[in-house]
Amino acid sequence: MALFAAGYPATSQSQATDRELNNFLEAYVDTLLPRDETPSGAELNVQGTLLERAARDVQYQSLLYEGLRWFDNTSLNLRGDPFAISSDEVRAAVVSRAEQTGAGQLPWIFFTITRADAFQAFYAQPESWPGLGLVRPPQPFGYIEHNKPPNESDDPW
Amino acid sequence: MTPDYDVIVVGSGAGGAASAWALSDAGLRVLVLEAGPAYDLYKDYRLDREDWERSGFPHKIQTADRVSYAQMQLLDDRWQGLRSWNRVRGLRNLGQRRAVDGYERVIGLGGTTLYYTGEAHRLHPDAMAMKSRFSQAADWPITYDELEPFYTKAEKLLGVAGEITDEARWRSEPFPLPAHEQSYATQVLARGFAARGANFGPNSVAVPSRDYDNRPACNYCNNCNRGCPRGDKGTADVTFLPKARKTGLCEIITEAPVVHLEAGEADRISAVVYNKNGVEHRVAVPLIVLACGAIETPRLLLSSIDGRNPNGLANESGQVGRNFMETILWTTVGLHPEQIGSHRGYPSDAICWDYNRPDAIAGVVGGCRFSPGVAESNLVGPINYAARVVGGWGKPHKQAMRDTFGRAMALTGIGESLPNDHSYVDLDPDQMDSMGRPAARIHSHLTDMDLNRLRFMAKFCRETLAAAGVTELVEEFGTGDVFSASHVFGTCRMGNDPESSVVNRYGRSHRWGNLFICDGSVFPSSGGGESPALTINALAIRTAEHIAKTFGSNSPKIND
């Protein structure tokens, strides 16, 4: 992975437990993809996908633990609570800070990679599709009314 | 060895499949050796699954070890306007040199037709005379008129749907099927062409608009490049190959990569050696057709060296691997304010041929064409919208997804690629594949002429999308700063002069009397952006009929 090419260490050293990592990721994906008209990221177990990848990839696992550490420290400095039990507003502020640290910084790397993975996991599930207009995969029905404007088509996509 | 076959065909893509069919249909016994496995439409293609968008084409054979890339050229500040970028991810290429996405192909029964969109184009006749008319590339040793009957045969077998949209490509018979109706998104895009006074008519495609020859009509899922689970798209494994098998004269062995050609006496290839499950097999060769594509065919020839042929086979001219031509492509993607449902339809349902003639672009030799960029942009599902169009996070992201999905509009230009001395294929001295064979090394260099053509395409795409109502651009991709090619040509070109070409006007090696080539490597010029599959089909059928006529069935003549 190009983002690891600069020699990001493949280490799994961390004082956090697996449970803490799971709680952190659940809160994190809920911040990235909160519940509104469609379920939240955690409700669709997006964090499970990230953990599955971590189980296969030592560097990715290390990234998640380092992310946990940075997010918790930042959250504690802001409001005195770890990220997983902070309010929605605090969590959003911490994610914003991570995004704004800039290319090459650990928090930005964590945010960029995990956001991409979270989007993949989330939007691969039909429960995330209401409101987009999608109700099913492209096959076996296709889009027979492709030649009509969407609002004139009887095909619910 | 007593030959069990009349012809060995190596490869089963556009050229191999068409030649296998035409040869067996003419009564010759054919063995097809295909390096990759067969694909099961229903099991392997995933478009009916909820996570369909997570993957592209389901490659079964990884090919990274078979190809390498020589250092690409430095990026020149003069072409800053041709950088690939995305509004969420930024610049695609952060380096100083042209980056490499790679040579896109499929190793499997049906070859890269399994992945292609199914465009079925005839070459512009003027593009076949580039040397004599424009002092570029080389002239084809045949004319459009000579190739026309074979285009017609290929179109009938494939069930090409289309409508006559330009007069240059005259036709002896109408299209087998009527043109597809255009998607609503394409109808909106067409407003941009109309506003500019440019033509934008139905594209000709090997995808049925009606049920045809036991294949269903397309149902417009817009995902041809992920593999067609319905068998409507005219891939070689549902068109030419079943018909070849039906003759009873065509045997196909898959997962059997050919690793060596053996040169015999009297300038004849005597045997092919293929590897099946780790065991090498030798098959006697009365006649052989190579159809591995413009990278793998020269790779096989160059690596089939022996004491008498230290530079490889059929390389007396030194042209094997030379004259490499690639995909010159530009795509601009924007968002339309109207909800157009752009994830629906057939990916390339319309085309503009206005600039396809070699002299159609002022100041540039070599033409281009424009078509909807659905396949190139791959914005047909929510994952790619989230990652590349919408970005962000939180509730604003989710709301933006609902506001944005289905509004992407993409326009692609594909243009002529002219050969030059710095673009060629050779063997990598350091990289070997899993069978110990040297990888094909691609050397690619774009000239100022290519980049000027690309500049024209970029400008046209941007202006036409704006004329169609697009209000914001979200992504652009061009092969000026990233090498990415599926259309490749020229590396064993055909010609009348043995000093400057590899095969003659029938695809027959100038020296090796029983060796023929039927793939894109024989193209002396690339055309002005036409998709090459139909031309490869036509050339292959023509070569096969020549073989049948010259050598007959069961008892091939050694001397002409």
Notes on the protein architecture:
The complex is a heterodimer of chains A (about 160) and B (about 550). With about 160 residues, chain A is mainly α. Helix content of chain A is about 50%, strand content about 0%. Chain A contains five helices and no strands. Chain A has helices at about 20-30, 45-55, 60-80, 90-100, 105-125. In chain A, helix 1 (about 20-30) crosses helix 2 and helix 2 packs across helix 5. The longest helix of chain A has 22 residues, at about 60-80. Chain A is elongated and about 55 Å long. Chain B is α/β, with parallel strands linked by helices and about 550 residues long. Chain B is about 25% helix and about 20% strand. Chain B is built from twelve helices and 23 strands. Chain B has helices spanning about 15-25, 40-45, 130-135, 145-160, 185-195, 240-245, 295-305, 375, 380-390, 395-405, 450-465, 535-550, and strands at about 5-10, 30-35, 65-70, 85, 90, 100-105, 160, 175-180, 200, 250-255, 260-265, 270-275, 280-285, 285-290, 330-335, 350, 370, 410-415, 425-430, 440-445, 470-480, 480-485, 515. In chain B, strands 5-4-21-15-18-17 form a six-stranded antiparallel sheet. In chain B, helix 1 (about 15-25) packs parallel to helix 6 and helix 1 packs parallel to helix 12. The longest helix of chain B has 20 residues, at about 450-465. Chain B is globular and about 70 Å long. Classes of the chains: A mainly alpha (about 160), B alpha/beta (about 550). The interface of A and B includes residues 149 and 153 of A.
Largest interface (CB within 8 Å) is between: A-B, 42 and 45 residues
The general outline of chain A is elongated
Give the helix tally of chain A.
5
What is the average per-residue confidence, as pLDDT of chain A, rounded to a whole number? 88
> In percent terms, what proportion of residues of chain B is strand?
15-25%
Helix content of chain B: 10-25%
Q: What structural class do helix, strand and pairing data of chain B support?
A: alpha/beta
- Average predicted confidence as pLDDT of chain B: 96
Name the helix and strand elements of chain A from N-terminus to C-terminus, one letter apiece.
HHHHH
Largest sheet of chain A: none
* Shape verdict of chain B: globular
Q: How many β strands of chain B by DSSP?
A: 23
Helical/strand content category of chain A: mainly alpha
Adjacency order of strands in the biggest sheet of chain B: 5-4-21-15-18-17
- Give a quick account of the main beta sheet of chain B: strands, pairing sense, barrel closure: 6 strands, antiparallel
Straight-line N-to-C gap of chain A: 36 Å
Give unreliable regions of chain A as ranges: 1-13
Termini separation of chain B (Å)? Answer: 23 Å
The helical percent of chain A reads: 40-55%
Oligomer type? heterodimer
- Number of helical segments with 4 or more residues of chain B: 12
